[in-house]
Specification:
- The protein is of the alpha/beta class.
- The chain is 30% helix and 33% strand.
- It is built from eight helices and 14 strands.
- It has a six-stranded mixed beta sheet. A four-stranded mixed beta sheet has the order 4-3-6-5.
- The longest helix is centred in the C-terminal third of the chain and has 15 residues.
- It starts with a helix and ends in an 8-residue tail after the last strand.
Length: 280
């Protein structure tokens, strides 16, 4: 079985009948289509969020979401995760410390699932941005490391290669080696899964960076900063809110990472570049 097929058979995609036109000729065949299911996150028996997600790595998703949204302060505040599948979707039962549950109730959050934009259903403008401390100084990451990360990210995307419809987030060493990668139909979900995987693996967040196959939105920056990772590199662009937040939190934010160059939106001191690229 191919590597991609192994991931797909684990629940990442379904084989469906499709038809159309390819190279000027009509065709009918079976093809892999990315799995997307409602995933309800329930904390201490209280429903909190329903997300549309790829039903893989859901325990890491629950942990990463809990950390990146500030529901728990550390992995130790999460006491148990149980995944229950039903015909209409999946419920992830999450047990957290009573102190964290009290804080969650106080925030009065009511999330709506999404795979695109959104601020996790914040009920007021004051809930848009959570209080986070600026990131401390650190070593500069070279342009070559960003390029290596993007190459490896693309090569390791089993679901994307088969379906063409999922995002990935990767944890990369300072040299650009992708050490952890998670995929999902939602870019926020992929990042949360990665943050959960990093927490489980005991990754020192200051010793590398995160690379994503999407744009760098406000929420992607906030989640990266919450994970205490000093640099976010995206294959696409950033948004104004993302740039503003990255600047205030002293997070390196790079977009349009290409062999020919990169756009640095914030934290230029966290990146280093040769005087010329490709001999120019």
């Amino acid at each position: 079985m191919k590597v991609a097929d192994a991931a797909l058979h684990a629940g990442g995609a379904q084989r469906l009948a499709v038809s159309g036109v390819r190279d000027g000729r009509a065709f009918a065949a079976d093809d892999w289509v990315a799995e997307e299911r409602p995933v309800a996150l329930e904390y201490n028996g209280v429903s909190h969020a329903v997300m549309l997600a790829t039903p893989l790595d859901l325990e890491e998703f629950a942990l990463g979401f809990s950390l990146s949204e500030g529901i728990v302060d550390s992995a130790g505040d999460l006491h148990g995760i149980d995944v229950e599948s039903a015909a209409d979707g999946i419920t992830v039962h999450i047990q957290i410390a009573a102190r964290c549950m009290a804080g969650l109730k106080a925030r009065r959050r009511n999330l709506a699932g999404r795979t695109g934009c959104g601020l996790c259903g914040a009920e007021s403008l004051t809930q848009v941005e959570r209080p986070l401390t600026p990131l401390p100084p650190g070593p500069a990451v070279p342009h070559d490391a960003l390029l290596r990360a993007m190459r490896e990210l693309q090569a390791l995307q089993a679901l994307q290669h088969a379906t063409g419809s999922v995002h990935a987030a990767g944890w990369c060493s300072a040299a650009g080696e992708v050490q952890l990668l998670r995929e999902d139909v939602g870019r926020h979900n992929a990042l949360d899964k990665l943050i959960g995987a990093m927490s489980r693996a005991g990754v020192p967040p200051a010793q590398g960076f995160i690379a994503v196959t999407s744009r760098a939105s406000f929420e992607m920056v906030q989640k990266t900063a919450a994970a205490r990772v000093p640099l976010l590199a995206a294959v696409s662009a950033a948004t104004t809110l993302a740039v503003d937040l990255a600047q205030r939190l002293q997070l390196g934010l790079a977009g349009f990472v290409r062999p020919q160059g990169v756009v640095v939106y914030a934290g230029a001191e966290r990146l280093s570049f040769p005087e010329t690229i490709d001999g120019r």
